[in-house]
Amino acid sequence: MRPDVTAVLKELRAALERLYGPRLQDLLLFGSHARGEEREGSDLDIAMILDAFDRPWQEIERTGPEVSRLSLQYGLTISLIPVRAKDWAGRDTPLLLALRAEGVPVP
């Protein structure tokens, strides 16, 4: 993994841990970066597994300032997708199946 990707993932995890505390159950990199198939300009697809939330767009708004700051700082587009822990554990949507197949935990 490229050093800039490793650095942004580390900073993102730290920021989300500050924001959510124990509600943040996991952070998974998926998509082209997880498969090692990224190209110039590929975005970072990241799933954020949270205890519970009402509306995904509210979590996207909540994380937006930090995601934007890191995207600008590193010149990388970050696509952060909130996933409910109960859905992660018990549903089989195309997105969740892809996450289970190729998701790489962000340390």
Task: From the structure above, extract its key features.
5 helices; Beta Polymerase, domain 2; 107 residues; 21% strand; four-stranded mixed sheet; globular; alpha+beta; 4 strands
Determine the structural class based on helices, strands and strand pairing: alpha+beta
Query: What's the end-to-end separation, in Å?
Result: 13 Å
| Gyration radius from CA atoms, angstroms | 13 Å
Give the proportion of residues in helices.
Answer: 40-55%
Count the E strands: 4
Strands of the widest sheet, in order across it, are: 3-2-1-4
The H-level CATH homologous superfamily, spelled out, is Beta Polymerase, domain 2
- Shape type: globular
Uncertain residue segments: none
Order of helices and strands: HEHEHEHHE
Q: Mind describing the biggest β-sheet? A: 4 strands, mixed
> How large is the count of helical segments?
5
Whole-number average pLDDT?
93
CATH topology: Beta Polymerase, domain 2
What is the count of distinct domains? Answer: 1
SS strand fraction: 15-25%
Question: Your description of this structure?
Answer:
It is a single chain. With 107 residues, this protein is α+β, with helices and mostly antiparallel strands. The chain is built from 5 helices and 4 strands. The protein has a 4-stranded mixed beta sheet, sandwiched between helices. α1 packs antiparallel against α3 (56-74).
